[in-house]
Amino acid sequence: MKLSARNQLKGTITSIQEGAVHSMVTIDIGGGHKITSAISVNAVKELGLKVGMEAYAVIKATSVMVGIDE
Who contacts 13 (Cβ-Cβ below 8 Å, separation ≥6)? Predict the structure, then answer.
């Protein structure tokens, strides 16, 4: 599968916390960095996601906010 999103970060799933509607999936992308995504429980099941699997964090943002400490 090819995607137009350029921010595709490959890593390993380290945790899946399932809620009533959404699951929090954490992917270790190396270098001490982790990305957590909220996806539907159905998506976790359809993709067959399991801890230890390789997966991609695909980021497609339409806006990015920048903040500073005051």
Answer: 25, 26, 27, 28, 49, 50, 51, 52, 53, 54, 55
